[in-house]
Input
Amino acid sequence: MPKQLTAGAIFRSTVQAVTLSLLSSTLAQLIAFYRSSEPFSAAKAIRFAIFAALSTPPNVVWQSELEGWFPSYTSKQQVTRYKHSTHASDFSDLKEPSGLETEDGENERRAAKEELKRWESTRDSWTDVVETKRGLDYRNTAIKFLLDQTLGALVNTILFVGGIAGLKGEGREAVFAHVRSDTMPLMVAGYKFWPLISIGMFTVVPAEQRVVVGSAVGVVWGIFLALFVK
Output
């Protein structure tokens, strides 16, 4: 199960996202300046930072809920059966029944037969041992990946395109026009970048390092977004 999501964790993630958005926007504008001498725009960097501050908290909650519903690592119980063999030597103390036709001899023969039956029934016995093993849950990882790359990607892309247009001060019709024209191209571009990253994050990168790796990758994607938005 994921750790309890706290307000402090959301705040730290938001601060990190705002910082990375400022870095991404600055680097993107430096690239644009190098290409076409486009002047630096502080307003563009601030718009990216504001959008990051608004969009990060719900995204952190979304990722936490996904992990709660479909944890990447689960514990499963596995039953292992062990065989135990009992050899006849374990019953070497069996007494040879007396051949005398006496009451004692009859009792000895009866006891010997009982001991022989007991050996026959116990020479092969089995013990079931229940072991708990923790490992990657491929089904949960696949479901989480599909939800994140379909529903999550669509909602985030629409909010980004519409949010940036709204922060520019454009009217409702202009915002809807941007959403209609820019959502699919941006999603297609994202599918060339994020799926392999997401699979690697869920299956290869240790949980304690995913934030660092995701942040580093986010800078590259942020540069693309800053160059995408004119």
